[in-house]
Specification:
CATH architecture: Alpha-Beta Barrel
Structural class: alpha/beta
Number of helices: 11
Shape: globular
Number of domains: 1
Oligomer: single chain
Bound molecules: zinc ion
Number of strands: 7
Mean pLDDT: 86
């Protein structure tokens, strides 16, 4: 008698196979197959670097800084890390310190592949804007991360409904005092590096509230989908690029892909309302 788990795995493998084939036929976006295509394009055109290596080397040539914010679903991050590992790419994974996301086993596995692990902090949100409390939380959480891996870069998490912007912590404190060499929002010169982000499950979306670098340039370049990013990378328009990919948005399972699509579209409606409200006040 096959166990329930075996039956599930059999069903899941079958469902994943049919879903992958279906995606190919109709050209669906935000699937792991599409991500592989994106990685292969990056490799053909650029040297892929982690945030840490970019900041240490400060290269002038063609490089792509590959960054992931692990906001939810750490298992998706593991899948993505394996894909990159198979292709010979190393990138940076910023994990939140949150139940269900901060998973030491998964973090160790990803670090073991040679990827960089970073701390995706949200301490001003957690401390409700109290800077003193926020820096204490930062120290504690950083200590927890360093029990399991090296941390040399950090990156803020942007909560669209929070009043605070987490990177503002560094207007009062200095992250270098914590042996941190950089923060992508503060340490990369985006005049030189073109920024692509899948925040809002759209590329360089107008719905983005806190993740909006190169906003003026973005209004000039219309990016509809990942195929457009692939075209831009192949055209070699930018010497250096930074690409932010959220692993939770990319799926090879139809149910998860569909839920993410519905959930993100609902969130985008909320974000549009927030943006409209902010312009009015
Ligand atoms: Zn985040």
């Amino acid at each position: 008698m096959p166990s329930l788990l075996n039956l599930f795995l059999k069903y899941d493998i079958k469902a994943t196979f049919y879903f992958t084939e279906f995606c190919k036929v109709i050209g669906m976006d935000f699937t792991l197959d599409k991500y592989i295509e994106l990685c292969e394009t990056i490799m053909k055109n650029y040297e892929a670097l982690t945030v840490r290596n970019y900041l240490l080397k400060k290269p002038n040539g063609k490089v792509a800084i590959l960054r992931h914010d692990v906001d939810r679903k750490p298992l998706n991050a593991l899948k993505m890390a394996k894909i990159e590992d198979n292709l010979g790419i190393t990138s940076t994974y910023y994990f939140r310190m949150k139940e269900g996301v901060f998973n030491p086993n998964i973090i160790k596995k990803i670090a073991g592949m040679g990827h960089e692990i970073g701390y995706h902090y949200e301490v001003l949100d957690k401390a409700k804007g109290d800077f003193k409390k926020a820096i204490e939380i930062f120290k504690e959480e950083l200590k927890e991360f360093r029990k399991i891996c090296n941390i040399s870069t950090i990156c803020m998490h942007g909560n669209p409904i929070s009043k605070w912007t987490n990177k503002d912590l560094w207007k009062k404190y200095d992250f270098r005092e914590f042996d941190i060499i950089g923060e992508p929002y503060l340490s990369i010169d985006y005049e030189k590096v073109f920024y692509f982000t899948d925040t809002s499950r759209k590329w360089n979306s107008r719905f983005s509230i806190k993740d909006n670098i190169n906003e003026n340039v973005n209004t000039q370049i219309k990016i509809k989908d990942t195929d457009d990013i692939i075209k831009i990378i192949n055209n070699g328009q930018s010497t250096q690029v930074c690409i932010l990919v959220h692993p939770n948005r990319w799926n090879d399972n139809f149910a998860e892909w569909f839920i993410e699509l519905i959930w993100q579209n609902a969130k985008n409606m909320g974000k549009a309302a927030i943006k409209k409200y902010k312009k009015l006040i």
